[in-house]
C-alpha cells in the first residue's frame, strides 16, 4: 500500500493558520481533494490496464512465451488487486470524513497528525499503533 501517486504530489501540503483547530473544515477539504485525485488516478490506471490485458491475449505457440505471458498477467492482476484495495480504502476514508472520524486513530483515538496524513491520507492508525501492528505482523510471519 505504499504506492506514490502522481496526483498526490501536485497538491501542495496544507499550511494550517495560527491557532487553527485540528481537522478544521479547510483541512478536511484539503484531504478530500487529495483523496479524490488519487481515486481518479487509480481508476484511470485500472482502465488502462484492462485495455492492455485485452490486447495482450495473444496465443503464443512457444510454451516459453506462454509462460512469460502468464506471469506478466499474474503481475498485472496483483497490481490491479492492490489498486482496488486502495480505492476501497479511499472510499472508507471518505465515509470517515463525512462522519467526523477522519484524522483520529482507530485504535486509541489520538490525533494522527497533519504530517502523517499528508504522507498517507488514508492512514487510519497513529504512528504508535501502526508501529505496534507492524511488529506484531512480523512476529506472526516468523
Ligand atoms: Zn493509536
Automatic annotation (TrEMBL):
Keywords: Coiled coil, Cytoplasm, Metal-binding, Zinc, Zinc-finger. GO terms for biological process: regulation of gene expression. It comes from the Bacteria. GO terms for cellular component: cytoplasm. Zn(2+) binds at residues 105, 108, 126, 129. InterPro entries: DksA_N (IPR048489), DksA_RNA_pol-bd (IPR012784), DnaK_N (IPR037187), Znf_C4-type_bac (IPR020460), Znf_DskA_TraR (IPR000962), Znf_DskA_TraR_CS (IPR020458). Coiled coil: none annotated. GO terms for molecular function: zinc ion binding. Residues 27-97 form the DnaK suppressor protein DksA N-terminal domain. A zinc finger (dksA C4-type) spans 105-129. It is found in: Cytoplasm. Residues 100-131 form the Zinc finger DksA/TraR C4-type domain. Pfam families: DksA_N, zf-dskA_traR. Interacts directly with the RNA polymerase. NCBIfam families: dksA (TIGR02420). Transcription factor that acts by binding directly to the RNA polymerase (RNAP). Required for negative regulation of rRNA expression and positive regulation of several amino acid biosynthesis promoters. Belongs to the DksA family. This is RNA polymerase-binding transcription factor DksA. It comes from Nitrosomonas halophila. The lineage of its organism: Bacteria, Pseudomonadati, Pseudomonadota, Betaproteobacteria, Nitrosomonadales.
